[in-house]
Amino acid sequence: MSPPEKQITILINQKPFHVTSSSLTGKEIKELANEPLEKLLVKVVEAPDPVAGGDDIIIGNDDTVELKSGMRFRIVNAATFG
């Protein structure tokens, strides 16, 4: 009997999604959330300290993201980012 696959929980637009793959492309993350591919996928970066802030990262459809439980993403219209 094989061991159960490890489940990874990520948040997309504040909703939890559970995956078993340790990496997904930007396209796959958008499809998981049932969002159009034209929108921007943004990886939310935690601020190391409140003064310096964090720098969110735009993920392209073909970019691969190594996933860890608790990662947060936003999917937004291109005009609303920046």
Q: How many strands, what sense, and barrel or not for the largest sheet? A: 5 strands, mixed
Number of helices: 1
Distance between the termini: 49 Å
Number of strands: 7
Question: What is the CATH topology?
Answer: Ubiquitin-like (UB roll)
Uncertain spans, ≥5 residues at pLDDT below 50? none
How many independent structural domains? 1
Architecture, CATH level 2? Roll
Estimate percent helicity. under 10%
Shape, principal axes of CA atoms = globular
Q: How many whole angstroms does the radius of gyration measure?
A: 14 Å
- Main CATH class: Alpha Beta
- Structural category is mainly beta
Record the strand order, biggest sheet: 2-1-7-4-5
User: Strand portion, in percent?
Assistant: 35-45%
* Mean pLDDT rating: 89
Could you walk me through the main structural features you see in this protein, from its secondary elements to its overall organization?
The protein has 1 helix and 7 strands, in the order βββαββββ. It is mainly beta. The strands form 2 sheets. Strands 2-1-7-4-5 form a 5-stranded mixed β-sheet, covered by helices on one side. Strands 3-6 form a two-stranded antiparallel ribbon. Strand 1 and strand 2 (15-19) form a beta hairpin. The N and C termini lie far apart (49 Å).
Feature tags:
Ubiquitin-like (UB roll), two-stranded antiparallel sheet, 82 residues, single chain, 7 strands, globular, mainly beta, 9% helix
Describe the structure in brief.
The chain is mainly beta and 82 residues long. It is 9% helix and 35% strand.
